[in-house]
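Throughout our pipeline, every protein is held as a single compact record rather than as scattered files. The remainder of this section carries one protein's record, kept here as part of the documentation.

===
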Amino acid sequence: MLAAIEGMITELRQIGVPVSIAERIDAVQTLRHLPLADRGTVKAALRAVLVKTRDHELAFDAVFDLYFTPEAAQAHASKDPGNSQAGQPSPGGAAGLDGQNGHGAGNGGGLGSLDDAALTELLLAALRDGNEVMLRAIASLFVDRHAGIEPGRPVAGTYYLFRTMRAVDPDRLMTRLTEEADQGDPAGLQRRLQLEDYEAQMTRFRAAVEAEVRRRLVDDRGAEAVARTLRRPLPEDVDFLTSSRDQIAAMRTVLEPLARRLGARLADKRRHRRPGTLDFRRTMRTSLSTGGVPVRPVFRKPHPAKPELFVLADISGSVSTFAAFTLQLTYALRSQFSRVRSFVFVDGIDEVTDALQQAADVVEATRQINAAGSGVWFDGRSDYGHALSTFWGTWGEQVRRRTTVIVLGDARTNYHDPREGALKGVSQRAGHLFWLNPEPASAWNSGDSVIARYQPFCDAVHECRNIRQLRAFVEQLD
C-alpha cells in the first residue's frame, strides 16, 4: 500500500498537481483509519487530503485508478491484520467491482454465458434501475469480448475504449430509452428528469469501461508504465494554440472560478499595496502622548483609483482560442477596473465592448463577433500595421495616463508593414502597455513574426501559452 501511495504521488507531481511532504504524510496516516477493502472510501479520503482545487480532481481520479485497482485493494486489506474489514467481500457481493470474481471472463456460466444481444438487454435494465454493480460487471464482459487488448503494447487504451463502446452502441441504447420515456408523458418534467438520469447512468457505464481497460493495462504492464502513456497536462498547462475541443472545454471550467479568485486578489492588492498620505493633524495629536515626538505616524485610508483597461485582441484563426480565453477573463474581471473596452482585429479593427456586455456569455459574444465580421477590413489575413494604425487614428485620443493597454497576438504580420509608430503613439499616451504572445519565445522573430519591432514600446512582452501563464500575468497587472 505504501508503494502505491508513493507511486501515485510521484505521478501526480509529474503532471503538475502540487503535493507537499506534509500531505504525503497525512495520506499515509489516513489509511490507518480506513477499511482498505472499500475503494470508494479510500479514494474519497485521499482526494480530500491530496487535492486542493476542483480543477485537479479528474487528474487525481485517473491516477488513483491506476495505482489502486480493485484486486490491489483486496490484497492490501487481506494483508492488514489490524483492519476489521480484511477478508470481507467488497460492497456488491462476491462480484465486487468487476462482476465476475474480479476477472470478468464469465467462465462457463452466469453472465458470461449470455450472447451480446441478451447482454445488451441486461444493460438496458441496469441503466433503467441505476444498478451500478451490474453496470460494472457488464462493462467487464464487453471489454473481454470486444476491446481486443494486446499484451505488451505501449498504448494509453483509447482505442480499446472506442472498440468496446462501438460494440455497445450507446446512441442506439439512448434512443430506445428515450422512446420508452416518450410513452409516458412526452412533454412533462418527469420525462426530462428520467432522460437526465439515463444519460448519467450511461456516463457511469462508460467510466466503468474505461476503468476496466485501465485495470487490465495495469495488470499487463504495471501502473508506472500505463501512467506514462496516460499522462496529460492539467487544464491550466494546455497550450492555447494546440488544444483540442475537449481540452478547451476543460479550460473553460478552470477559467470560471479563476476569475473570481483573481478579482479578489487584485482588489486586496490595490488596498494594501501602499499606505495613504500622511494625516499631519492626527499624527501631531497622537504625538502628545510621547512628549510631542511623532513616534507613530498616522496615514489616511488609501482610496486608490481603479485603472481603465483597453484590450486589443487578434482573432485570426491561428490565435483565436487564445484571444477568446483572454477576452473572457478580462470581461469577468471588469469590476476591478473603472472601464474595460475590448477591440478585435485581423487586418482591420472594431470595438466589441457592447457585444461582450450584452451577450449572455463570452461564447455567445464570440458567435456575434464572428457573424458581424468584426476585425476584418480587406482579405481577412493578419495585418498588425493597418489594425494598430487604425486604432491609433480612431481611438488614440481616448487613451489616458490611467489607461492600461493589452495587446493579444503573435505579431505575425504576413510580411505587411508593421507600422510600429502607431504602437509608439499609444505607448506614449497610456500608463502601461503590455503584449501577450501565445507562441513560445523560441518562435518569436522567426518567419513573419516582428515582435522585436514592437517590444521597445511595451512595458513588457510576456509569453502567454496557457492559463497558468495568463493567471501569473493578471496577478501582477494592477
Q: What stands out?
A: Confidence is low (pLDDT under 50) at residues 81-109.
